[in-house]
Amino acid sequence: MAILILFSMLLLIVFAENGLVDLNSFRKERDRLVEKNESLARDNLVLYNEIERLKNDDKYIENIARQELGMIGKNEMILKPQSVSGKRSKQE
What we know:
This protein is 77% helix and 0% strand. By secondary structure, it is mainly alpha-helical. The chain has one domain (2-91). It is rod-shaped, with a radius of gyration of 33 Å.
């Protein structure tokens, strides 16, 4: 009888609500959330650094304007080379 009671208690501890099965799933969820939190903290740091550079670094702003917006500086000219295939067809 005592063995039966101990076995039923063991089953309750393992499978009951808030038992070991739930504890394991809560640990996995916690680990996933901790990893996600660390990833978001890294992303926030990158964004914070970019914001600071945009506020204070004129060279960085100029670089962004040139690369992302296609802007050019004062007194600069854009030279577009002619295609090689276009010259060949005119010569033939």
